[in-house]
Design goal:
The complex is a heterodimer of chains A (509) and B (192).
Chain A: E1 4-7, E2 17-24, H1 28-39, E3 44-48, H2 62-69, E4 83-85, H3 94-97, H4 107-116, H5 124-137, E5 141-142, H6 150-162, E6 166-168, E7 170-171, H7 198-204, E8 208-211, E9 213-219, E10 226-233, E11 240-253, H8 256-267, E12 276-279, E13 283-289, E14 304-306, E15 310-314, E16 318-321, E17 323-327, H9 331-337, H10 343-349, E18 355-361, E19 368-372, E20 378-382, H11 386-405, E21 410-413, E22 419-421, E23 442-444, E24 448-450, E25 474-476, H12 491-506
Parallel strand pairs in A: 1-8, 2-3, 2-11, 3-8, 4-23, 11-25
Antiparallel strand pairs in A: 5-7, 6-14, 9-10, 10-11, 12-24, 13-18, 13-21, 14-17, 15-16, 17-18, 19-20, 21-22
Helix pairs in contact in A: 1-7, 1-12, 5-12, 6-11
Chain B: H1 23-44, H2 60-73, H3 89-97, H4 102-116, H5 118-123, H6 134-145, H7 150-168, H8 183-187
Helix pairs in contact in B: 1-4, 2-3, 2-6, 6-7
The chains are: A alpha/beta (509), B mainly alpha (192).
Chain lengths: 509, 192
C-alpha cells in the first residue's frame, strides 16, 4: 500500500473514517513513530496542522515564513509576553525550523532519569540502540571546518583566547551550501530532518498524512476505539472550515510538549499531572558588535558552542549550568530582539552586518503550566526562577568577555534597560539584568515536560510506555514525557525516545 | 526607567491592578474601559480621522493610530533613510488581523484604543497619541518600552515585534543594514 500527503485545505474533506493508529503531529516524534509503525505493517494516519511547505516556497523571507512555519504565526508567547515560544507548525515539525543541532541526551541525564525518576528504559545501556538509531536517521556528523562562518569563528576565537572549553557542534545537514536561513526553512533541503527522512519512509510504507488538519478533541479515551475530532484549516492555516471524525484503536499524541498537553486538557483526558511541569528552557540572546563586517547571516548560524559552564550530571537536576552558542537570523527577526524603538532602533539595525550573536542556553527546572480555557484559548504560564536568572546573568557576563576577547568593540545585552559592555571590567554589568517580566527578549525553542513519564500515576501523567494514565491506548511519544530537560537541543532526544517507545509498542500490538 | 520591580504585584497606580494579567486581556479591559466609561466625551478627543479605503478590519481611527505609531517607531534616519510610512505598514497590520482569531482581533483593537489615549491615561495630557507633535509622541512612545507598568511594556513589545519584522523584511531597507538579500537568489546570481 502506498501512502500520501493530503492537504485538507485543498481537497474535499473525507467522511469520518477509521484507522488502526492515529498519530497527532508530524515532527520528530510523530514522523519517527509513523515510519516505524508503517514499516512494521500497521495502518497509520498522521495529522499535521501545518502544511507541506517545501523548496522554493521557502522564500527565506521573515514575514511570510514566520507566518507559515511557526505556531501562532510566530507570535506564541508565555502568559506575560516574557518568553517567545517557538514551535514548528509545518509538515516535519520543529526539525524544519531548527538550526540542525544534534545533541543527544547526555549519559548523566540518562542516569539521572533512570535512578531519580525510575525511568529504567532510559538507562544508558538500554537506551543506546535508540540513540544510535536517531543519529543514523539524522545522518549526524561534525560540522566541517570550512562551513564555520566568521561569527562562529569569533565566538571560538574568544573562547580559546580565554581558555574556555568549547566544541564544533554536530549537525544533520548534508550538502549544505551555507544559506544561513535554517530558522525559516532550508530551501534546498540540506537538513536530514523528519520531513526528508521519516515522512517519506512512512508514506512509502503506506501512511496517510493529512496536512492543515487540527485535532481538537479526543473522546472515548477508555474505550477500545477512540474518536478524534478533526478540523480542516484554510490554505493559510488561519481559520477552520470543516470537521470530521477519525476512529482509531491507538492514538499517539506527538504535538510537542505544549500542543500535546493542550489537546489532552481540551479533551479532559489524563490525570492531574497533565499540563504541569512545563520546561521552556528560556534562552537569552547577546550581541557582539564589531568594527568589521561579520555577515553572520551567511553560513551555518549555529556551529560552535562554549560548553565550559555546562554540567551534564548535576545530582539534583541532571543537565545544569549553561552553554553559549552562536546564532544569527534574518533582519526581521533580529530587529525584534533589540530593545530600542525610534532612532536608536534604527541605529542598532544599521549595524546588522557587524553583529555576531549568541544564545545563552540554561536548562531550567519544570516551572510552567499549560492551561486551556473553555473557549480553547491556550495560556502558557511560566515563572522564571531566580536560579535560572542568575545563570543567565553569569552566562551574559562570560559571553561578553568572550566577544571582547575576540575583538568586539562592544557587547549588547538586549534587555530593558539595555546593557552595553565595552571592556572585560565592565562585564559585571550583566549582573544588573533584572529579568522583570517582559524586559528580556527570551526565546523558548525546546519545550518539554507537561505529561511526565512516571512509574506511578501518583508521580506523572504517562506510564513508562508513554500511555497516558487513565486511558486505553492513548500515548504521548514526544518531549512531553521528559521529567527534566533532556539536552540543550531536543530534536535528537525526541527521535531517540520516540524510537524507543515505538519499539515497545510494537512488542504489544 | 531606573529599576523595574521584579514583582509587578507590588506596583500601584491606574493600571496596577492589571499588571499580572495577560497582555491581551489587560488591553481589552483597559481599552474597553476607555470606550465604555469614557464614552463619547473621551472619544471626541480623537477628532476625525482621514478616510482610508480598502481596510478589511481596522477602522479609520485605528489606522491613524498605527500610522502615527509607525512614524515614531521606525523613523527615517541618516543611516536608514527609508520612511516606514511609504510602506503602508498599518495596512499590513490590517491584513494580518484578517488571519487572526476573533478574540485576538477584538483584544488588539482595544490595545490600539489604549495607545491612542495613552497620553491621557499615563501622562495626564488632554490629548491623544495621534495629535501629539512628533517629538512628544516619540518621547511618549519610548516611555512605553521602559515603563514600570507591565502592560505598557507588553504593548510595546507586541507592536515592535510586528512592525520591525515587516519593516526589516523589506528589500528597500536591506542596503542600509548591509544585508544583501536572500542567499539562494544570491548564489544563483539574482540580486534583490
Amino acid at each position: 500500500m502506498t501512502g500520501a500527503i493530503v492537504d485538507l485545505s485543498r481537497e474535499s474533506l473525507p467522511e469520518s473514517f477509521a484507522t488502526e493508529i492515529l498519530i497527532i503531529g508530524s515532527g520528530s516524534s510523530g514522523a519517527t513513530a509513523a515510519r516505524l509503525l508503517g514499516e512494521a505493517g500497521h495502518e497509520v494516519v498522521v495529522l499535521e496542522e501545518g502544511r507541506d511547505l517545501i523548496g522554493a516556497e521557502r522564500t527565506q523571507r521573515d514575514a511570510a515564513m514566520y507566518d507559515q512555519l511557526y505556531m501562532d504565526r510566530g507570535g506564541r508567547a508565555s502568559h506575560d509576553l516574557s518568553i517567545s515560544v517557538l514551535q514548528g507548525r509545518v509538515l516535519g515539525g520543529g526539525g524544519v525550523i531548527n538550526t540542525c543541532d544534534v545533541v543527544p541526551i547526555p549519559e548523566g541525564v540518562l542516569n539521572h532519569w533512570a535512578t531519580k525518576y525510575q525511568l529504567e528504559d532510559f538507562a544508558p545501556d538500554k537506551f543506546e540502540p535508540f540513540a544510535r538509531g536517531a543519529l543514523e536517521d539524522l545522518s549526524a556528523s561534525r560540522i566541517p571546518e570550512d562551513l564555520i562562518n566568521v561569527a562562529n569563528a569569533k565566538l571560538r576565537q574568544g573562547a580559546e583566547g580565554l581558555g574556555l572549553r568549547g566544541e564544533v557542534m554536530m549537525h544533520n545537514r548534508v550538502s549544505c551550501r551555507g544559506l544561513g536561513t535554517c530558522l525559516i526553512g532550508c530551501p534546498i533541503h540540506a537538513k536530514r530532518n523528519p520531513r526528508m527522512v521519516a515522512i517519506p519512509k512512512a508514506i512509502a510504507a503506506g501512511a496517510r498524512v493529512l496536512t492543515r488538519a487540527r485535532a481538537v478533541k479526543i473522546s472515548k479515551a477508555n474505550q477500545e476505539v477512540k474518536e478524534v475530532e478533526v478540523r480542516a484549516l484554510d490554505p493559510r492555516g488561519y481559520h477552520e472550515h470543516g470537521k470530521f471524525t477519525i476512529r482509531a484503536k491507538i492514538v499517539i499524541v506527538a504535538a510537542n510538549a505544549i500542543g500535546s498537553a493542550q489537546l489532552l486538557l481540551r479533551s479532559g483526558v489524563g490525570n492531574g499531572h497533565v499540563g504541569k511541569n512545563l520546561i521552556l528552557q528560556p534562552q537569552l540572546p547577546i550581541i557582539g558588535l564589531f568594527d568589521e563586517r561579520i555577515a553572520a547571516f551567511d553560513g551555518i548560524p549555529q556551529a560552535y558552542a562554549i560548553t565550559e559552564f555546562e554540567e551534564e550530571d548535576n545530582p539534583e537536576f541532571g543537565l545544569w549550568g549553561y552553554r553559549i552558542e552562536a546564532i544569527m537570523g534574518t533582519p526581521g527577526i533580529v530587529s525584534t530582539m533589540l530593545p530600542f524603538t525610534g532612532a536608536p532602533g534604527m541605529h542598532g539595525m544599521a549595524q546588522y552586518d557587524r553583529m555576531a550573536a549568541s544564545l545563552l542556553l540554561a536548562p531550567d527546572r519544570p516551572s510552567g503550566q499549560i492551561e486551556v480555557a473553555r473557549d480553547r484559548r491556550l495560556t502558557i504560564r511560566y515563572e522564571q526562577r531566580p536560579d535560572h536568572q542568575q545563570r543567565l546573568r553569569d552566562a551574559a557576563e562570560n559571553a561578553a568577555k568572550v566577544y571582547l576577547e575576540a575583538g568586539a568593540r562592544e557587547v549588547l545585552v538586549p534587555t530593558v534597560p539595555a546593557v552595553f559592555i565595552r571592556s572585560a571590567k565592565e562585564a559585571k554589568k550583566a549582573q544588573e539584568i533584572s529579568f522583570a517580566p517582559a524586559t528580556a527578549p527570551m526565546i523558548s525553542a525546546h519545550q518539554q515536560g507537561t505529561v511526565r513519564f512516571a512509574a506511578s500515576e501518583r508521580d506523572g501523567g504517562a506510564d513508562l510506555d508513554g500511555r497516558v494514565y487513565g486511558t486505553k491506548d492513548i500515548y504521548v511519544f514526544d518531549s512531553s514525557g521528559y521529567p527534566t530537560t533532556a539536552s540543550s537541543h531536543t530534536m535528537t532526544p525526541i527521535i531517540s525516545s520516540s524510537r524507543m517507545l515505538t519499539a515497545k509498542l510494537l512488542t504489544r500490538i | 526607567m531606573a529599576d523595574i520591580p521584579t514583582d509587578d504585584r507590588a506596583r500601584e497606580g491606574l493600571f496596577g491592578f492589571l499588571s499580572r494579567r495577560r497582555f491581551l486581556k489587560a488591553s481589552l479591559v483597559a481599552g474597553g474601559a476607555i470606550l465604555g466609561v469614557g464614552g463619547g466625551g473621551l472619544l471626541a478627543l480623537r477628532g476625525r480621522a482621514p478616510s482610508v479605503d480598502g481596510l478589511r478590519v481596522l477602522d479609520d481611527h485605528e489606522y491613524q493610530t498605527l500610522e502615527s505609531l509607525v512614524q515614531v517607531m521606525l523613523p527615517a534616519t541618516d543611516e536608514i533613510p527609508i520612511d516606514a510610512a511609504s510602506m503602508d505598514l498599518p495596512r499590513a497590520f490590517d491584513a494580518f488581523l484578517t488571519g487572526e482569531p476573533e478574540h485576538n482581533v477584538r483584544d488588539l483593537r482595544k490595545a490600539l484604543v489604549l495607545v491612542e489615549f495613552g497620553p491621557l491615561v499615563f501622562d495626564k495630557k488632554i490629548t491623544t497619541f495621534s495629535r501629539l507633535p512628533v517629538d512628544e509622541r516619540t518621547e511618549h512612545w519610548n516611555s512605553w518600552g521602559t515603563s514600570d507598568r507591565l502592560l505598557q511594556r507588553q504593548v510595546s513589545i507586541a507592536m515592535r515585534k510586528f512592525f520591525n519584522l515587516v519593516y526589516f523584511d523589506h528589500e528597500r531597507v536591506w542596503p542600509y543594514i548591509g544585508y544583501p538579500g536572500p542567499s539562494l537568489k544570491r548564489q544563483r546570481g539574482v540580486t534583490p
